[in-house]
Design a protein that fits this description.
homotetramer, alpha/beta, Alpha-Beta Plaits, Rossmann fold, 2 domains, 7-stranded mixed sheet, 4-stranded antiparallel sheet, 8 helices, 13 strands, PurU_ACT (chains A, B, C, D), Formyl_transf_N_sf (chains A, B, C, D), one-carbon metabolism (chains A, B, C, D), PurU (chains A, B, C, D), EC 3.5.1.10 (chains A, B, C, D)
Chain lengths: 274, 274, 274, 274
């Protein structure tokens, strides 16, 4: 079972927390702890053997500084909604893991602004909502999408190569719950056609970045990043192909980290107990 | 300041330890903890802000299971002795870090069974002992080497491409204090000419392994490993060159980990809080 | 269009080949060439712009040493058969690429010695043959499997986590056309339970190896290998999970290389123009 | 022996070149070739067995398009000058390789705008010129540096953590012969304090880039790049330390590639036959 705590730092926090766990006869399997000295914030993730956690959260509150964020056994049955456009690679990887129950969460539905990926969803009996910007104006489209999402009350919304920029209004509706895979090693090549930019710059590495969506384009706290080597023999097209492999891997890894409650967000940064 | 503890696991250890630290007004900067469930062994590495640690070790002993290994601020001025044969790459890297005081420990002397590397040592005013197997029989040679080492009372003996197998008697004289860089991704290609073996096998990766020396050839607890890709265009000779780069990096990394007290040894394994 | 040639080396080969291509007004887009000096074998892979290749193979034969292996535009529509047991990760990755036509070849059918993966195949309208060792003795089972395979005349048979050892007789039926993903960085941890072996040895890296199947267990020419870092926090079980990710990636990469005619086999080695 | 050619692409180039080599009884050991389709430029690097190359360059000129750049056995005894400020890691690595004759070129002298690294140079009997911006104005300083460099007529000038921006006038004096190591994964974090930028952005990877110096800050054709993973436990300071390791490795690799005539420059890009 997992316990995560984020609060103002002070001397003795670990002791108080661990002592309370011991009093509850809860054995610590593993513990990851970090203090951001500059911000004076304390982060801890505990994995404990199953036991009676009745009243634990309250007891912890008593010893922790005011405003402490405490989650005892945070939702172990997380739900996600996936948003896509036309590229299949990230969605297919998620559908497969969902189907074989190795995702750690359950996919509720997929929303596409194109119909391209409807068939693959149906093959997995996955509800697919085709909400097109040809059908609706941007404002109404986002309203529709938001309403579909809300009815599933997902823990996270995953932009699995959703290629339209979402408005601040939409993002504000699901704060720090939208996860995006950006097809570049941020902060390099922000914006459109990063592979074209990378190709023209003649870089020797390309990468991908999974991050929470904030309201600045391709900003927001970074969860995971990876790269692969490229060279002159790559065209912009083969860079895209290679990039898709790494995008799939990075998003899969980021989802695993988030779903396992290993990611803490504060300011524009994350603490990730990988 | 660092505190490392290794002991039998039991409920409440983290709490007892952290509470004692709090009582001593010692603030935990970071904490890494691990429990080997199979062996029921508890490992913790604490980094604490400087403070008065008078009596801390004793107080800890009282709450920890019998046989607990406790080190409060383990030797912060570690000393090492380096043993070499003819290849320069690992030694030179160590001498440079030592000279610029970024090694984290101080090199006391270098022992070579060939004179090849004497000049580079002298350029850094580093004592070099040439103890040759042409000069002495194996038993006497190891006696001599052991005596030179002992007079410097080093924390660790680093085999920086020392190409002779040391006898159990020698190893027993410095248990779990001899660190070797093996020019292969162990356990593949144990023994001599691993690059030749790798070349003939047509592998696509070669690696290097830094490990403590036990009495089985190329066995002993592994500290760090890395690999690099190779292909058909490599000859056995260019594989050696490429391998030397990775050997240097792996040994440097392993020494950093050991010197910073991040490595725990038990049985034939390590816990490394990297 | 691709041209691959493998033959005895001699002075002027590249010139003769390139001159003939020029005579045919065939423009070289890219060329990768290698000579194994020890074995005196010449390998070349040419990518040329489309054009009239009538009579090209014959003209090339005239200038090349006897016994030259020449393939002009080798089967651009390759077919593969996949064999599986219970693990889904490699198969699902292949089915997805096949469905979205990014595999570069077409999967003809899947043969499983368990029924576990029948449903996922059916979701992709992929013929699935359940041929069980409970149903048949080993000899008859392999006969049946070989017959199913033969009726599809595949270019390659892919063992996507097929967990039974195939007899020399079966392997001889499809020489150097069977590709296996081995869940280890060969030659380390040959045989069963490599992750258990890796865990007990306390390695800091685990890997996967894609190779052609010869008749020695886990031997055969290596096509591709990759690794990922692991540490003490991994259990044998989480090592398996991590390993499955790398197995999927390595097999996908190996298939890409083979399907794009980038892999030459000779002796127990490969030349891979990646 | 090496032959490199860069010229306008046309049908039959490889054939003409290889045929001429065969006529000269020069056997091709390995050949790497690339065509930039967009720019219609042909690049080839040939490694041939030693033989009589008398008149070869002229014969090649006859069959190659006008303006072809041909180098038969380009300077096999390359000379470099190193410029530094205070950080030792790249310089020390170069001095060691130079001392052990594994650099592939010889270091002529080191120029420092601080005296910090004078002692390490003297330990290797390496001429060190301390030319300080306190001593001279920028224009005069660059004049002095340029004159020192010119008297050694180096093939390349290596900025091994030289922390001042060089004027267009200086760069123009040594076009595409100045190699810089930038402490970032370009184009991310251009300019000063990239590690501080990286730390504040909370990236999960940091990198280094070796590139030729053009007149835009941190632009210029990229030769090599590498990254290492980082996380929340890194401070800006430990990121610098980690970055120095990767800077050293990337610069060493870039120098190897350039010295072995594996790097072609055109426009703001490179072709690297690694």
């Amino acid at each position: 079972m997992i316990i995560v705590i984020q609060c103002k730092d002070q001397v003795g926090l670990v002791g108080s927390i661990a002592t309370i766990l011991a009093k509850h006869q809860l054995n610590i399997v593993s513990m990851r702890e970090h203090v951001d000295k500059a911000e004076n914030i304390f982060f801890v993730r505990l994995e404990i053997e199953d036991g009676d956690t009745g009243g634990l959260e309250e007891t912890l509150k008593e010893v922790l500084p005011p405003g402490a964020i405490i989650a005892v056994n945070p939702n172990p049955h997380k739900k996600i909604v996936v948003m896509v456009t036309k590229e299949y690679h990230c969605l297919a990887d998620i559908l497969i893991r969902n189907y074989f129950k190795t995702l750690g969460a359950t996919v509720q539905c997929v929303i596409g602004n194109h119909a391209t990926l409807q068939d693959i969803c149906e093959r997995f009996d996955m509800p697919f909502y085709h909400l097109s910007h040809e059908q609706y104006g941007r404002k109404e489209l986002e309203q529709q999408m938001g309403d579909v999402i809300q009815q599933y009350a997902p823990d996270y919304i995953v932009l699995a190569k959703f290629m339209r920029i979402l408005s601040p209004a939409f993002v504000a509706r699901f704060p720090m719950r939208i996860i995006n895979i950006h097809h570049s090693f941020l902060p390099a090549f922000i914006g459109a056609n990063p592979y074209k930019q990378a190709f023209e710059r003649g870089v020797k590495l390309i990468g991908a970045t999974a991050h929470f969506v904030s309201n600045e384009l391709d900003e927001g706290p970074i969860i995971a990043q990876q790269i692969i080597p490229v060279n002159h023999s790559f065209t912009a097209a083969t860079m895209v192909k290679a990039g898709q492999e790494i995008e799939t891997a990075v998003l899969a890894n980021a989802l695993k980290l988030v779903i396992e409650d290993r990611v803490f967000v504060y300011g524009n940064k994350t603490v990730v107990f990988g």
